[in-house]
Design a protein that fits this description.
Strand content: over 45%
Distance between the termini: 39 Å
Strand order of the largest sheet: 1-2-3-4
Shape: globular
Radius of gyration: 16 Å
Number of strands: 16
Order of helices and strands: EEEEEEEEEEEEEEEE
Oligomer: single chain
Largest sheet: 4 strands, antiparallel
Helix content: under 10%
Structural class: mainly beta
Number of helices: 0
Length: about 180
């Protein structure tokens, strides 16, 4: 990278494969066993988060331009993109085991919100809910065994638990 590395993510299915994203908007796929860069590509805006699909076929990115992008990491092709959240503060995204994408972000009025989206129809979230009004970015942590999302916000003193299901309303609040 020409500038600082902002995040790294291990491939969920292949050994020794690592994704790094830098402040230079570059994404590099590495074989850490040999130390070589396998692929590299750039995105048009600063990268806030990245998450591999569970098969490793795709990576979802959130960027400073408010867009959520699904990218083929072998070619760098953007397969699909949409506005994730309307607010200017950073958004985050994580793939669920069934292939859906859980995002966190902000409204224009700085309300924190989350959404659940399906690839192929990113523009129409399955659910988009406002949580509260505060300025801390929420980081989703996903547990594939329990199908739970844990939301912890920067500066928060609580962790929220949500269960993801195939039935409406798709995201079920469990506890704080």
């Amino acid at each position: 990278h020409q500038r600082g590395v902002r995040l790294i993510k291990w491939h969920p299915a292949a050994q020794n494969i690592l994704l790094s994203a830098g402040s230079d908007d570059q994404v590099i796929i590495w074989n850490v066993g040999t130390g070589e860069a396998l692929h590299s590509f750039s995105l048009p805006s600063q990268i806030f988060s990245a998450s591999w699909s569970w098969s490793g076929a795709d990576v979802v990115f959130t960027c400073k331009d408010k867009k959520l992008r699904i990218v083929n990491p072998r070619k760098g092709d953007v397969k699909e993109e949409c506005i994730a959240h309307e607010g200017m503060k950073p958004s985050q995204a994580v793939y669920t085991k069934d292939g859906k994408i859980f995002t966190t972000g902000f409204t224009k009025q700085s309300e924190r919100q989350y959404s659940l989206r399906e690839p192929g129809n990113l523009d129409n979230p399955l659910i988009l809910e406002n949580l509260d009004v505060t300025n801390g970015v929420m980081f989703p942590m996903y547990d594939p065994d329990a199908n739970l999302v844990y939301l912890c916000g920067k500066g928060d003193n609580v962790i929220r638990y949500f269960e993801i299901s195939d039935e409406k309303p798709y995201v079920h609040y469990i506890t704080t």
